[in-house]
Fold this protein.
Amino acid sequence: MTPRKSAKRNGGPAGSRSPVAIEPRLLTHYRDVARPELKEQFGFSNPHQIPDVVKVTLNVGVGEGSRDRKLMESVAGELAVITGQKAVITRARRSISNFRLREGMPVGATVTLRRRGMWEFLDRFISVAVPRIRDFRGLNTRSFDGRGNYTVGVREQIIFPEVDYDKVRQIHGMDVTVVTSTDKDDQAYALLRQLGFPFRGEVPVIIGATNS
């Protein structure tokens, strides 16, 4: 009798294969569509000059966090659900007596996304969450910081469908910051537009389209 193949060797039951990770849709679009468009638009001769997304950071400030532990836990939990990554609690760097705030007290939560998680989040943010913003008329084109980074201020966390409204302890906003590899705002703007960011007054690029 032929012995069964080792489950350990094959990563699972006999005859099974490990699932192949599918590349994030937005990353594929960036590589196949956005990069060639950006290279042509700016006349880059070196491919390393083409702007890229380095990381995405989500920040939530909770003024009552220092006095309401459950609220702080709720905010951190929502960020984890939205991003698929554990949130880090941010703490006061100095004491402010007028706000009854002491150095080291929790004041918010943050998550920094890179690589695959970053691309997957951006895809969901652009195509699902942003269109759910109340009275949405397009993203502000003036929210670049002069160094090629862009911040979107979100007023309500419930625009993310991953958040269970019935479990929300308090409606709060957050900042979503996209850090790019360029220090020029015009290049960063072109990059984000190619990734489908629906800027005010612009027709957004359709993700999944090709150059052909």
Notes: Strands lie at 53-61, 88-91, 106-113, 150-154, 174-180.
